[in-house]
Amino acid sequence: HIVAYITGGANGIGKAIAQKMHCQGAKVVLADISCKGAKVAEGLGEKALFTCTDVRLEKDVLESMKCVKEKFGGVNVLINSAGVVGYEPIYDFKNKKPHSVDLYRCLYDTNVWGLFNVTRLMVGLMAENKPDANKQRGVVINLSSMMACEPPPGLVAYGSTKSAVSGMTMPMARGLASKGIRVIGICPGYIDSPMTAPQKPDERKKWIGMKLTPKRYGTCEEVAHLVQACIENPLINGENIRIDMGFRYNQERDAVQRISRCYLAECAQNLGKYVDQVSKRLSTFQRCGYYILDGISKISCGAQISLKQFFGCFNAR
Ligand SMILES: NC(=O)c1ccc[n+]([C@@H]2O[C@H](COP(=O)([O-])OP(=O)(O)OC[C@H]3O[C@@H](n4cnc5c(N)ncnc54)[C@H](O)[C@@H]3O)[C@@H](O)[C@H]2O)c1
Predict the structure, then answer these.
(1) Based on C-alpha coordinates, what's the Rg of the chain?
(2) For every residue of the chain, which 3-state class applies, written as one string?
(3) Which of 81, 103, 244 to mutate to test the pocket of ligand 1 (most atoms within 8 A of CB)?
(4) Candidate from 6, 13, 145, 146 with most ligand 1 atoms within 8 A of CB, to mutate
(5) 46, CA 20 to 30 Å: which among 118, 209, 248, 253?
(6) Whose CA is nearest to atom 41 of ligand 1?
(7) 232-282 residue pLDDT tens
(8) Is 158 considered catalytic here?
(9) Which atom of ligand 1 lies nearest, measured to the CA of 11?
(10) Percent of the chain with pLDDT over 70
(11) How far is CA 21 from the centre of its chain?
(12) Ligand 1 in contact with 54 (CB < 6 A)?
């Protein structure tokens, strides 16, 4: 019987994993900082539990673990999906601005420390499980990212947090093997989720262009499918698995788009100025036109009157 503890289970990939596992008969715990998780757990019913947990806080995780032990007796699957993203280059040369310290710390706090914090506490509970036929007691699955291997310049901080996550896979697997606990890293490419929702269409198009096939964003359900396979297969251990549609970062393509975006913005600005000038000239021209037309109509009107008078005189004769 599977009891899965899923951090970040309120949204995106974590939520899809919770739904899939619950559907297959597992008990699931959604540990998330967002109270949206309560609704998700409520929707799943009896065998689901939500605990409002900040993965960065030892106190939160310990309290959450206590609830889980009381309700489900223990945990044999840990999915570390809680994560945050932020984009900034190491130095913004145009505005002379170095990378924000707060963003860097925020990403490391959640993605690296938070994941490590939950794992270090949870594996103690896992080690209490009775071993199965393969002498295994549980599995830890960490959501790393393809950005651990292919980070663009704007993801220097995020990408390196994910390298740290991937870097934990093997030493954790080695350290926990004697207790029959496996550790696997999953490295998804761009996936449709609340995390990627703010990306603009031209940015999505650029990333899709760097994928081999399929040429689209992945779905959270497709990642959940791989997670399920990793849980079920006792042979998978100590490995970081990419699920990224063959994505390879392309520096030239990225640069061309960034340059063309700047160039287009400059063109649009210049075009705006030009349109402004033209419309000013047009309105002057229009005003002149009105005067000319007015003059013509007055002249022609005057001419008609005199013709009428002329013919009137002629008729009178
Ligand atoms: N979406 C992608 O394209 C993609 C690609 C590669 C890797 N990933 C990784 O997969 C994981 C899930 O991503 P997602 O797309 O589902 O993101 P998401 O933003 O949809 O969900 C992340 C969840 O983590 C929770 N969370 C954030 N900080 C937390 C904290 N301190 N404590 C507890 N919960 C916290 C959020 O409330 C949210 O529910 C992340 O680790 C992400 O870095 C995502």
Answers:
(1) 33
(2) CCEEEEECCCCHHHHHHHHHHHHCCCEEEEEECCCHHHHHHHHHCCCEEEEECCCCCHHHHHHHHHHHHHHHCCCCEEEECCCCCCCECCEECCCCEECCHHHHHHHHHHHHHHHHHHHHHHHHHHCCCCCCCCCCCEEEEEECCHHHCCCCCCEHHHHHHHHHHHHHHHHHHHHHHHHCEEEEEEEECCECCCCCCCCCHHHHHHHHHCCCCCCCCECHHHHHHHHHHHHHCCCCCCEEEEECCCCCCCHHHHHHHHHHHHHHHHHHHHHHHHHHHHHHHHHHHHHHHHHHHHHHHHHHHHHHHHHHHHHHHHHHC
(3) 81
(4) 13
(5) 118
(6) 83
(7) 999 999 999 999 999 999 999 898 766 666 556 666 676 767 667 766 666
(8) yes
(9) 39
(10) 82
(11) 23
(12) yes
Locate the ligand 1 atom nearest the alpha carbon of residue 13 and give its number.
16
Q: Is the CB of 157 under 6 A from ligand 1?
A: no
Confidence of residue 314 (pLDDT cuts 50, 70, 90): very low
CATH architecture under which domain 3-249 falls: 3-Layer(aba) Sandwich (3.40)
Amino acid symbol at 217: Y
The reported pLDDT for the residue numbered 259 is 62
Of ligand 1's listed atoms, the one at least distance from the Cα of 56 is 31
- Which one from 158, 190, 217, 249 is the annotated catalytic residue? 158
